[in-house]
Amino acid sequence: MTAKAELSPEGWVREQTEKILEQGTTEGVEVMGRPIVLFTTTGAKSGKKRYVPLMRVEENGKYAMVASKGGAPEHPAWYYNVKANPQVTVQDGTEVKELTAREVSGEERAHWWKLAVEAFPPYAEYQTKTDREIPVFVLE
Fold first, then answer.
1. What DSSP designation does 70 have?
2. ∠ CA(109), CA(112), CA(115), 5° rounding?
3. E strands within 22-127?
4. Which of 3, 26, 84, 137 has the fewest CB atoms within 10 Å, measured from its CB?
5. Strand pairing category for 136-139 and 62-66
6. Hey, where are the domains in the chain?
7. Kindly report the CA angle at 132 between 68 and 135, in degrees rounded to 5?
């Protein structure tokens, strides 16, 4: 991961990221007993690299980024960064890959949403809290 990436101002997110960076792996860093992956995105306006730890949703070497923001009415800030700059770095364990994100819809989104809810069941509750369809990106 690049040392130039910025940590989140959100305390618990910053702590997760710092732990991953200190350990050099995402292993053992979890939310509610579920594994996470560390994404590095590029700011839509600033062009700065930003760390985004999210739940691990993976299938056959592809990853999903779920823009849930806990069911808030608005998308998380990183959503706009990924829309503008779809080249994303993914760290899963000690493995680091450069992948390209694309927002999915229809049957493909339904498939990845099912995988996301299996990986982190609270996503289903988050969807009930908001009128927006929670966006899902697939990275490959």
1. G
2. 150
3. 30-31, 34-42, 49-55, 58-59, 62-66, 87-92, 95-103
4. 3
5. antiparallel
6. 11-139
7. 45
The amino acid at 28: G
Task: Please write the tens of the pLDDT for every residue from 20-52.
Answer: 999 999 999 998 899 999 999 999 999 999 999
pTM for the full predicted model: 0.92
| CA–CA distances in Å: residue 131 to residues 9, 54, 59, 72, 75 | 26, 22, 28, 9, 11
Instruction: Locate 32 and state its tokens.
Output: 């509610």
The rounded distance, in Å, linking the Cα atoms of 55 and 34 is 7
Domain 11-139 has CATH 3.40.50.150: no
According to DSSP H, which parts of 1-135 are helical? 11-23, 77-84, 106-119, 122-128
Type of residue numbered 100: T
Q: Which amino acid is at 99?
A: L
